[in-house]
Request: fold
Amino acid sequence: MLVTELTATERERILAKAALFAPPANVLPDGRRDLVGLSREELADEMAKAGEKPFRAKQLWHWIYHQGVREFSAMSTIARPLQEKLAEKFVISRPEVAADQLSQDETRKFLFRFRDHEAVETVYIPDPVEDRGAVCISSQVGCTLSCRFCHTGTQRLARNLSAAEIVGQFMAARDAYSEWPSPKGETPRLLSTIVLMGMGEPLYNYENVAKAMKIIMDGEGIALSRRRITLSTSGVVPMMDKAGEELGVNLAVSLHAVRDELRDELVPLNRKYPIAELIAACRRYPAASNARRITFEYVMLKDLNDSEADARALVKLIAGLPAKVNLIPFNPWPGSTYETSTPAAIRKFADIVMDAGYAAPVRTPRGQDILAACGQLKSAVQPQA
Ligand code: SAH
Ligand code: SF4
Reply:
């Protein structure tokens, strides 16, 4: 079989597996449908079924995603009788805020609970200097991949999140910072970027993630540019091309090791898609350029992957790629067995990478006091039976 055919078969298999973990229907027990998370076409279909004209879908889209309103009664361009009719059939909902913690460094972690009581964590990380920040969004309840150093990896996959639940995390975070209506154009906003770096592997829930990102990027709603969205993957190679072509968001790759032997152990998915294939997929990634570099995430683990030889092998591996390397000192969590590299080892490693011409920022842990830093997330409140 040709490589491309193999990839296509693999992709089908991944999408079929994702469907096994599909989220429940986005309908209330009383039968009302949630409008959040529908594509524009689906919203238009709902309006048609309700006997309404297509332009109503456009109006609703504006109210839901630009103005951020949650009640039909607040939609002043819609007459009262229609507001009431819509409210009988539909809702505009948000996940429930089951916990809301603020770190000493202003990082804020939410535990959002959904209708079936499953929950995920979402983190807002303000820029330490400027009035902006990143919202770190989850894509799955748990994760199937069990990377050794990751807290989420200890939580088995309960299910995938729906597009509504993915968009809903961002919208609920916006609610918490009163950031509606959506700022227009380059107007500053606090919640200015999205990183798909929370719980779960986004490329194992591709369809819902893609749908959610398309809603968020839509110019008449939240209108966040693809340049402000970064998808992080542990290396689901067959889905990387698809994400690049269809979404064109920035790519972050959780590399963590430069030898297959070690990466097999740290990121077990490497046994399926080894380093050479992963790097080849990065070289093909359509949205990468010098202005939009691929981020390689590299967790610094004491005496495991932090030697000078590792740093030199890393720059060889990514030679010629528009890339930067994010060095993440390992964040411990209850029960973790690894140790963080020494500051001297991290410094040395960063210097070697920088001397080769790559940016190599060392990521300061944020929100560690509330277990909100990279790799510390877990559905803190276990779902009810
Ligand atoms: N599943 C995706 C998205 C999660 S991103 C992925 O793995 O890329 C979370 C990032 O934090 C990943 O780069 C992950 O490898 C890293 N990470 C996980 N556990 C960590 C820990 N304990 N300390 C520091 N970084 C960690
Ligand atoms: Fe899953 Fe990413 Fe954690 Fe690995 S690092 S277990 S892929 S969330």
